[in-house]
Amino acid sequence: MVLATDIVDRSILRTQFGEDKSNTIIKLMAPTETDFEDIASYGIFIGYKFRTQLDLDDCTQEEAKQKCRQAINCDLEQAIRQLNIVIQQHHWQKSSFYVYLLPFTNAEEDTHAIMKDLIGE
Fold it and tell me: Does the pLDDT of residue 19 top 80, yes or no?
């Protein structure tokens, strides 16, 4: 993070306003770390098993990839809309959320295996 104190020429402030006033101005422009609240950040992993009702048999490989991307984007947009609703309901707008879409072969089994690894069972 670039602070205002890194880009303000203090000598100009001192000649214009004096030492005390220039320090006050700098303090107003550049809050210290203690002036910030801790803002929570969350990582959300969405286990995803891609299924489609799309007819991919009569497509080229590139057309099939494009149809799959569109289907995944549509599903992801739905998940993001739901996440936004929950964020607003709980007033978490100041928090950061990092969302990762994880493709699974068998989402239920894979998520249980991951949780066992994390918990140590």
Answer: yes
